[in-house]
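Example record

The entry below shows one chain as it appears in the dataset: sequence first, then structure tokens.
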Amino acid sequence: MGGTVEHGGPARGRDRGAAGRQQGPQSLLPPSAPEDGPQDKVPRRWRRWVGAWRRWSLWTLLVALVAGMLVTQVWLAGRYEASQVQSRLERDTADAVADIRNAFAHNLQNLQALQAGDPDLAAWEARAAELLSTRRELVRIEWRDTQLLLRAHAESPYRPLPWDATTRSGTHSETMLACTNARRITGPSYSSSYFQPLPDGMGAEMMEVCLPLIQDGRVRGFLVATYALQTVLQDLVAPSLQRTQEVSFTEADGTRLALVGALRRGSRMFTAQQLFDLPGNTLVLRMDGWHAAPSVFPNVLTALVTAMSIALVSVLVVLVRDNRRRLRAERDLGDALAFRKAMEDSLVTGLRARDLNGRITYVNPAFCDMVGFPASELVGQTSPLPYWPPEHAQEYAERQVVRMSGRLDPPREGYESTFMRKDGTRFPVMIYEAPLINAQGLHTGWMGSFLDVSEQRRVEELSRTSQERLQATARLATVGEMASLLSHELNQPLAAISSYANGSLNLLEPAPGAELPSPQDLQDVRVGVQRIAAQAERAGRVIKSVHDFVRRRDQTREPVTAQDLFDAVLPIIRLQARKLGVRVVLSIEDGLPPALCDRTMVEQVLLNLTRNAMQSMDDPQIHPRILDLRVRRAASNASNSWLEFSVADMGMGIPEDVAERLFTPFYTTRVEGMGLGLSLCRTVVEQHGGFLDHAAREPRGTVFTFTLPAFQKADP
């Protein structure tokens, strides 16, 4: 439009002027008058002046019209902007009053809760002090009897004030007037505000609320709470204030009682007032907002209207295309969100997201089911979290501070912790955490996944207990098989002990005609007693070796030499070897390090393997019968060292069908066997990190080999 006025207007004016100069004389002068006569000088000059005035009038009118439109636009924009600012300010004022009302109602509920359970004075003061520590707008709470005499009180730890008991107990004090009104209306009553001097020479406006304690329809006392109006504004309103706003409590005449806000920021001030009506008192909440003058430059560029009109079609086309793409993206996003939601709801793994301050921002249903808290009670929570056991809360809080500070990344393999359900039961969880990175590559928080491993721990404990019971059963079965061997072996030392004892008694008898035994007899008695002791020690070693084997001990790993392992089981091995006519050959490589193992369990492995080897040679056709026991260094590297134990026999070997199921639990080829020996042997060896296997021996027989880790001294 501007371009049209600027370029087309003068052109049309020139055309109309030329036309006037050509047509004017034809209409104003008689046809017979010449065009250049002297009588034409005045009309032609007048016509030029009229044409110029007309053009100037049109341009003036056009400029006035454009200026009027611009001024109108500026005025309307300013009015609209001012109305919007005023509307926002009024909404903010109404929201502030609503927040204060809610806070006051919540405080009344907390005051009523102080009397729950009919507490004594000490318990009441403790509850009141705890309430004052969480509600900063309250500076004092009093418990008064029906005569308004003070029974107990508590003061805020944040603002110690000098309280004059005589002034507060006066007949016309604000406290008395509020409690009198509360008794009359049988409900909470607020007093008028009053000025409370401070130790630093300043002061603050206070307001009392008196809450009657009603029991069985009668007033049994009063609770009096003191509000600091300045703190009410600071804690309940100031956090939501903008930087260009200030809020204050005023009386009906406009006197300001408390003020919170920033200094003046802008050229125009807007004011909104909201009546804050309380039982017994009425205050006015005033909010002032500073705003800069409306921006004139965008409103005066009328030419932009044309440009915007021309560009509107293009923008609409672009918007239609963009809207289609947006709708398609929204559908795809909706499908992706629905898929993710279904996937998260089907998970049994708990998920939890936290921001950089440790505040929970998301939990999935599996996590809520795991801890027993709904998502509404978890989202937004920070340390200490409700599912932390109280005995571990301090430890978890310190760990969270370290984690949120970024000084320690969580281990990729996860870590185990203990959580508490809503009913108070504890359960172990496995935690895996990873940083949350947004689309811009910024670290915005942490995502954690949680697995409830209580059932796994229970199964592991049952498995361990069952394994120990099976091992104990196997040891008892082994002892049962050796009972006959023990009776045969113990008969020899016991018979020798009996013979030596009888011979010693006979030697102690003096010869006929002598009063004392001869010195030679005494020497023979000494020898007999020594042999009795040796035979008794031999019998004790046999019994002790069996007792140590059968006794159930905790599984502890310790460095044990191969010689010590065989020394513990050889007495038992030789019992069966002598009965079956087997010769035992032991060969231990020199310079071997000790094995790091559970001594009792490895001894059982050696006993099971040697017993099976000797039983495989219990055949009259097998000669000679040799049990070959060897220990040597196995293949090792810089970080691990291993020892190899081998038990070889000269029996008939193991058939292929039996070898396939050789280590299957409860599979046995002997009528009296239980089928647990080799299965337990493999379990014990694998628990130590080694392996157990067998192979055929040339020219006949079988060799069983297993490995154990060697003990390595720590580097200095």
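Notes for this example: Residues 1-41, 296-302 have pLDDT under 50 and may be disordered. The longest strand covers residues 203-215.
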